[in-house]
Amino acid sequence: MKKILLTLVVALIAATASALDSKTIKVNGTTRKYLQYVPKGVGKNAPLLISCHGMNQDANYQSEMLKIESVADTALFITVFPQGEGNSWDISGTKDINFILELIDKMHDIHQGKKYTR
């Protein structure tokens, strides 16, 4: 019984430690979704990594495939996984570019010289 309880506690802590926050932002009148991971102890002027999903994928898939949380915890950087509309990105216009730029502006405490995309 103690082993089961200990296993459940460890699993709960692990799940909580790597939890992503689901967020929204208004961009040109449209509500856009993204996932955000902010490690405990991250301070002002933190680096920002923006990781965009591929065609026919989504932000959840991208975060699960990248598994960057442990690296972010060690290096103390914020990670954002934006969600394209319809699981794709607008390559012919500026609506997704504006979305990414708004996300960068929203992360006001990031280091302005350390913004990265993947």
Question: Can you offer a commentary on this structure?
Answer:
The protein is an alpha/beta fold. It has a single domain, classed as Rossmann fold, CATH 3.40.50.1820. It is 36% helix and 28% strand. The longest helix is centred in the N-terminal third of the chain and has 16 residues, at 2-17. The chain is globular, with a radius of gyration of 16 Å. It starts with a helix and ends with a strand. Mean pLDDT is 84; it is low at 8-16.
The CATH homologous superfamily corresponds to Alpha/Beta hydrolase fold, catalytic domain
Give the N-terminus to C-terminus distance in angstroms.
45 Å
> Architecture, CATH level 2?
3-Layer(aba) Sandwich
Mean pLDDT: 84
- As laid out across the biggest beta sheet, the strand order is 1-2-4-3-5
> Under the CATH scheme, which class?
Alpha Beta
- Which value, in Å, is the CA radius of gyration? 16 Å
User: In total, how many domains does the architecture comprise?
Assistant: 1
Structural class: alpha/beta
SSE order, one letter for each helix or strand: HEEEHHEHE
Number of strands: 5
Quick summary of this structure?
By secondary structure, the protein is an alpha/beta fold. The chain has a single domain (20-112), classed as Rossmann fold, CATH 3.40.50.1820.
List strands and helices in order, with pairings.
Blueprint: H1 2-17, E1 21-27, E2 30-37, E3 46-50, H2 59-66, H3 69-75, E4 78-82, H4 95-106, E5 110-117
Parallel strand pairs: 3-4, 3-5
Antiparallel strand pairs: 1-2, 2-4
